[in-house]
Amino acid sequence: MAIVRPNLDQLQDLASRLHMRLTSEQASEYLALMQSSFDAYDLVDELPDEVPEVRYPRSAGYRPSGDENPCNAWYYRTEVQGSAEGKLAGRTVALKDNVALAGVPMMNGASTLEGFVPSFDATVVTRLLDAGATILGKATCEHFCLSGGSHTSDPEPVHNPRRHGYAAGGSSSGSAALVAAGAVDMAIGGDQGGSIRIPSAFCGTYGMKPTHGLVPYTGVMPIEATIDHVGPITANVRDNALMLEVLAGADGLDPRQYAPPVDAYSEALGRGVEGLKIGILSEGFHLANLDPRVADKVREGIARLERLGAVVSEVSVAEHGLAGSLWHPIGCEGLTVQMMHGNGMGFNWKGLYDVGLLDKHVGWRNSADALSASLKLCMLVGQYGLERYNGRYYAKAQNLARRARAGYDQALDRYDLLVMPTVPITAQPLPALGCPVTENVTRALEMIGNTTPLDVTGHPAMSVPCGQLDGLPVGLMLVGRHFAESTIYQAAAAFEAAGDWQTF
């Protein structure tokens, strides 16, 4: 069918929004000249979209409630059986609800997206199913993934399975909660500011944020392409490594990927840590809100690695704080342009676009008051930077990100791994519904001090449970060189084998 053509009045109004002044005669000429372009639009409109084939049968499923969903960790339940054999045969998986699963609703934690149903599977979904996994549904996530707490998901918060009424962490809140509760063996999470590692630390799971670009983001709703990561959350190290083996590698559809090298990650699990050089990142212990009990528990974990044979010493990376600061202009201005003004997709990249998502997400403008407080804050910061300073701070922050990465790289030239607390606190009580904006936002962002820097620099980082405080998990974060996930798994597996972390 033909697209709708503008009339003269509409064209002049359009020109004025582009800061042009056209006379009626000029507008008429331009309108005639535009018709050949619109003919091309008609052709595009007539052709079928180029999207991947859906190869595994499934039903739309249903939204569970009550006793079937005690932590509100499930958004939708369904069952998609993968291949009869493969590395993940017999394993069950939950997908963060920003991951496209064809035919099954996807809300990304936000009421403004409710009713959207993807038409194709994300690359990570296809790879999981090809490897024999069974997908059991979509895990609740935070409102457009803009919270490290678990109180911003619509319509209600996600509870920590280890203590009801406490945060599960975010934004992959349901993913970590379902793994910790034993409802699934593994889950897909996403990480732009810590959203795999934070809920893993709060819930006591193993959460790997891979090197930027190692795992294709194709079919996952983006926030900002330069900090978008997707990766595994599991109950043990072996499952995590096996899952990453399945997920890693280029798919030819994601511009975040630069022919990433992949590895047989599970082969690193029995190597031990004898002689492994681990640097204790001083700045990671200097966060203003670091609970000293968390610091002590992480240091106990580091001492355990040292007793296992690792060579441990203190190291400073002054750029740790810089990278955390760079996250604000990159994240806020970037998400405002790509996820919000760009209707969930943005422009100027080659790859697989979700046209249906773009069509649905445009509706946020009609319900902007319903956006979460933390997303509104980021949008206000981002829009101000774009309008007042023309995006120069986004651009400069991206330039400075190379310096930040170099700071970590220099330390990782001397050490095999860096270590620090994943988050400065344990899971906190969920804030009350309708709490003041300041409390809402504070509880959404209070835990990101050590996680955001690694999203800016792209280094792989994994949260490993290392003990408990008052029955709530503590996370220890291991950071490696780009594409050195195997080294992280090597240390994580040795730590896991040293004893039950819940008794530490």
Automatic annotation (TrEMBL):
Q: Which SUPFAM superfamilies match?
A: Amidase signature (AS) enzymes
Where on the tree of life does the source sit, at the highest rank? Bacteria
Matches recorded under InterPro entries: Amidase, Amidase_CS, Amidase_dom, AS_sf
Which Gene Ontology terms cover its molecular function?
A: catalytic activity
Q: Which residues form the Amidase domain?
A: 79-488
**Name of the protein:** Amidase
Upper lineage: Bacteria, Pseudomonadati, Pseudomonadota, Gammaproteobacteria, Oceanospirillales
